[in-house]
Amino acid sequence: MTSSTGLLSRAAGDAAPILLVDDEVAILDGLRRQLRKKFAVHTATGGPEALELLKSEPVTVVVSDMRMPQMDGATFLSRVHSLYPNVVRILLTGQADTQAAITAVNEGQIYRFLTKPCPPEVLVQELENAVELNRLMTAEKELLRTTLRRTVEALTATLSLAQPAAFGRAARVSRTVTELAGALGLEDPWDLEVTAMLSHLGAVTLPPNVLEKLDAGRPLSEDEAAMAARVPEISRKLVAEIPRLEAVAEAIGCYRARYDGRMSPPGTPRGGELPLGARVLRVAADFDAGMSQRPAVQDTISAMQGDAGAYDPRVLEALVGLHGVPDIGGTPREIDVDDLEPGMMIFDDVLTTDGVLLISRGTEVTDPLILRLENYISQGRVGRRMRVRL
Predict the structure, then answer these.
(1) CA distance 258 to 252
(2) Intra-chain end-to-end CA distance of the chain, in Å
(3) Rounded CA gap, 211 and 220, in Å?
(4) Average pLDDT in the 153-179 region?
(5) Is 3 exposed, middle or buried (0-12, 13-18, 19+ CB in 10 A)?
(6) CA distance 193 to 174
(7) In whole angstroms, what is the distance from residue 285 CA to residue 292 CA?
(8) pLDDT at 328
(9) Which of 13, 175, 226, 367 is most buried as measured by Cβ atoms within 10 A of its Cβ?
């Protein structure tokens, strides 16, 4: 593989990094000479080599020749689209491959195809346009993510005040999801965390006594079990109304489906067809439910392994790996409410003097939560001291 060096990248300063892919080294050398004053140029002599380079070198635009051994340009750019959707893709092709290029544009979401030989000024202009498109897509994605994050935080904060038991479960499940994502090597688990937090939105329809039973792992009556079974679908419908969270809604809607498909209604995805968020959430939710009923982590994991068909084997293995080492969460510390700070974790359920659950164990301390505690303390309905993890 021929590749630009770190020295070239430094010389290019803030120039946008691009990747040129062609099996003819002479063509790559010529293109690099034409473009290196305007862009930070990386090169590769084929699709497999380019995909390997992309694992370590972030780029804004990929330009690929159509006819290459091992993997043609259309196939390569389709792989790039799947792995790096924000990278803008340009296909270079000869006149004889025009129809194939048109098909690639239509089916592979390629930004442009340019015929060879392409005049240098045309290639430079198209690359500048592609770099700007990448900038706009990246900025829009970041804005969208920030907006969605704030929306989710507002929803879950409201749920924590209205339904502390449901939020406590959501917070615990979300933390397990984050741990599983790390064990699975997922670099950006935010979508999975959102899926975990919003999967409990439908719990606002449950009576407090049912929520408390769920949280404590106590048996439900037939009617109560039917109420609880409807929560994922209610959550799915609520989340589906939020723009750009369609994939999250889909994962929430089917997270109770078994991995092996047993007992699932016709048409329900199974195995690898289940969204990853659904597979991870199923493991995390069942682990939390099991921990409410069993005295030891290993007892809960053993019970889950006894019904292994319900879970993605890779995710269940990640859970086992997470709990194959001693707990590093630290010893809980008892403090006065005046010493509470955002970011601490409530270690025990906080109950009012008349036995009503106010804050569920595992809830992260926030400013509104501290204010709520102070209001209840001022009325003599909650004690001042509680155990937390820092």
Answers:
(1) 13
(2) 50
(3) 10
(4) 80
(5) middle
(6) 5
(7) 11
(8) 42
(9) 175
Cβ 61 vs Cβ 135: under 8 Å = no
Query: Tens digits of per-residue pLDDT, 30-80?
Result: 899 889 889 999 999 999 999 999 988 889 999 998 888 888 888 898 888
Phi/psi region, residue 353 (left: phi>0; alpha: psi -120 to 50; beta: rest), is alpha
For residue 143 the two structure tokens come to: 């804005």
* Cis previous bond, 117, omega within 30: yes
Q: Are strands 61-65 and 40-44 parallel, antiparallel or unpaired?
A: unpaired
* % pLDDT > 90, the chain: 34
Indicate the DSSP class of residue 257. Answer: S
Cβ neighbours of 349 (radius 10 Å)? 19
Sequence-separated (6 or more) residues with CB below 8 Å from residue 203: 159, 163, 166, 169, 211, 231, 235
Alpha helices (H) along 243-296: 246-253, 276-293
Are residues 388 and 340 in contact, defined by beta-carbon separation less than 8 angstroms?
yes
Give the position of tokens 């670099």: 187
- CB atoms under 10 Å from CB of 290, counted, come to 17
Alpha-carbon span 174 to 183, nearest angstrom: 14
pTM: 0.57
pLDDT at 350 over 80: yes
What's the whole-number average pLDDT of the chain? 84
Residues 270/254, Cβ–Cβ less than 8 Å:
no
Q: Which of 383, 382, 342, 349 is nearest to 365 (CA)?
A: 342
Residue 217 scores a pLDDT above 80 = no
> How buried is 338 (Cβ within 10 angstroms: 0-12 exposed, 13-18 middle, 19+ buried)?
exposed
- What strands lie across the sheet with 17-21, from one edge to the other? 40-44, 17-21, 61-65, 88-93, 112-115
Q: What is the pLDDT of residue 108?
A: 57
List beta partners, residue 385.
Answer: 336
Q: Got the DSSP string for 129-195?
A: HHHHHHHHHHHHHHHHHHHHHHHHHHHHHHHHHH-HHHHHHHHHHHHHHHHHHHHTT-S--HHHHHH
Domains and their CATH numbers in the chain: 6-137 (3.40.50.2300), 163-323 (1.10.3210.10), 329-390 (3.90.105)
